[in-house]
Specification:
The chain is α/β, with parallel strands linked by helices. Helix content is 34%, strand content 24%. A six-stranded parallel beta sheet has the order 9-8-10-11-7-12, with helices on both faces. A five-stranded mixed beta sheet has the order 14-18-15-16-17. Strands 1-2-6-5 form a four-stranded antiparallel beta sheet.
């Protein structure tokens, strides 16, 4: 016996069965190479992954009961179709997956391909919407927010941080004259960011938290931008408490943060499913997955002897993968005087060169102070904002619009950036990126996305002229290339090598 239904009070799928093996089928064994601190090296770790949220044995019936997020509904239907009654199957599809009614004619504010995707999405109650940079994701979310709000539904927009929120709020206002809910301008649309939520008084003060929970209970539609970055304690608090929302859509350029792959159940409980377990719990698999088209890409590896002379003796990559070793290797490479002088040649060769680098601010400071100021017009994107250095070394802080105006006026030569510039920024007319670090899909592909808004881009990397293998860096470089080759496989991609003396 196997019964399946949706508990609407908690927005969960409930499985009740007298077959104990069902629980085991939802506990896949996953193997992954991880750094184990007590062994001080990387090793293959095997662990049981539980797809369900709760499990218990009903004392009155002896049935095994499992509680899962609605996002697993289609997987359950596929795995247990032969054991689920037709009535339970139909009810699960109705209550968790398929919209009761939906729009079938296009939105005038959207392009044809956007309408195709949005009208498909609206057929379902839950799902992920993955699309490439320059697709028009913000316009799409704003259009859907206006659609649901106009039909009388209360809509909650969720973003990971303020920059994404500001862009989305601005688009809703400019295109639809749609204000966010406030005491001055009551509206059916509200917006919340996950960053800092757990430090807010309405969360930390137990006497106020129930008011926040009740507020979350009031929403019928949830639209989450950059959704993979909202899957944290704050995001889970939000998604666990929007229990009256019948629609939950997650939007992203790289919903699968690690590999940028499509999140699908077509291959069963695969690695991409396991690593996105929490995301699937709330939003299910990808319903829309758009790869970039019509971009001409030149992948250019600059071969240099400056990497050949660097000494990394004593570093065992298999054992030494801690953050301190990573920082040591990166500092050794990117503060080397020969490498730094080569970077200046790249800036001369590739105008408005975008250089993303994460969590290594000392390297950016070294470049700017010793090699950039007085030679280049520098736009630094960092947590402080947009910092501009002119040719005389004068420093000024710009707004986003002022920074874009500088780029458009050809008054910027190089754009070094911390992770603040990876997402939710649209710089006009830049097509050159110097890719030097990172191996996580969300970071690499989002940073490339800053220069992928036109019809052409150059992805510049650095390699050893002698073919020397550099700890950490060489494997990360290979991973980065694999990531962007897979993601941009529908585009025209040309690979070439330039030797440093030809710059």
């Amino acid at each position: 016996m196997l019964r399946v239904w949706v508990d609407s009070g908690i927005r969960k799928v409930i499985i009740a069965t007298d077959d104990k093996s069902v629980k085991g089928m939802l506990e896949p064994l996953h193997s992954e190479v991880k750094y184990v601190p007590w062994f001080k090296k990387k090793t293959l770790v095997k662990e049981v992954v539980r797809l369900y949220d709760n499990y218990w044995v009903d004392p009155s019936t002896g049935y095994h009961v499992l509680e899962l997020g609605l996002g697993w509904s289609s997987l359950i239907l596929g795995m247990f179709r032969s054991y689920i009654s037709q009535e339970d199957s139909d009810n699960l599809i109705r209550d968790a997956l398929v919209s009761n009614s939906y729009r079938t004619f296009p939105f005038p504010e959207l392009r044809d391909y956007q309408n195709e995707d949005v009208l498909h999405m609206l057929k379902y109650k839950i799902g992920l919407f993955s699309c490439y940079t320059s697709y028009g994701k913000t316009q799409t979310i704003a259009t859907m927010a206006n659609y649901f709000a106009s039909s009388g539904k209360k809509v909650l927009l969720v973003t990971p941080g303020k920059k994404a929120k500001d862009e989305l709020v601005k688009r809703c206002k400019n295109v639809f004259n749609l204000d966010m809910d406030s005491k001055k301008t009551p509206s059916n649309v509200s917006c919340i960011i996950t960053s800092g939520l757990l430090n807010r008084s309405d969360y930390t003060d137990i006497s106020k938290r129930q008011d926040l929970i009740n507020w979350l209970h009031s929403f019928e539609v949830v639209l989450s931008d950059e959704v993979e970055y909202t899957i944290n304690d704050a995001g889970e608090f939000i998604y666990s408490n929007v229990i009256n929302a019948s629609i939950l859509y997650g939007f992203s350029g790289t919903a699968d943060k690690k590999g940028g792959e499509m999140i699908t159940f077509s291959n069963g409980i695969s690695d991409v499913v396991i690593r996105n377990k929490k995301l699937i719990t709330y939003f299910g698999p990808s319903l829309v997955y758009r790869l970039p088209l019509n971009i001409s890409i030149d992948s250019i590896e600059v071969k240099t002897s400056s990497l050949d002379s660097l000494d990394f003796s004593g570093i065992d990559e298999k054992k030494d993968s801690s953050s301190s070793v990573y920082s040591f290797v990166m500092e050794r490479i990117w503060t080397n005087s020969f490498v730094c002088r080569l970077i200046t040649k790249l800036i001369d060769k590739f105008p408005k060169l975008f250089i993303p680098i994460n969590n290594l601010n000392s390297i950016l400071s070294h470049w700017i102070d010793n090699y950039f100021i007085g030679r280049y017009r520098v736009l630094l994107v960092c947590g402080e904002g947009y910092i501009y250095h002119d040719l005389d070394g004068n420093r000024s802080k710009l707004t986003l619009q002022e920074a874009c105006d500088k780029i458009a006026a050809n008054e910027v030569d190089v754009i070094p950036s911390t992770s603040s510039g990876y997402r939710a920024l649209d710089f006009p007319g830049i097509e050159n990126i110097f890719l030097i670090e990172g191996s996580i899909g969300g970071v690499v592909l989002q940073s490339i996305g800053r220069v992928a808004r036109g019809s052409h881009m150059n992805i510049v990397t650095l390699g050893s002229k002698a073919g020397k293998k550099i700890p950490i860096y060489t494997k990360s470089d290979e991973k980065r290339k694999e990531l962007f080759k897979n993601y941009y496989k529908t585009c025209e991609l040309t690979e070439s090598i330039i030797f440093e003396e030809k710059l």
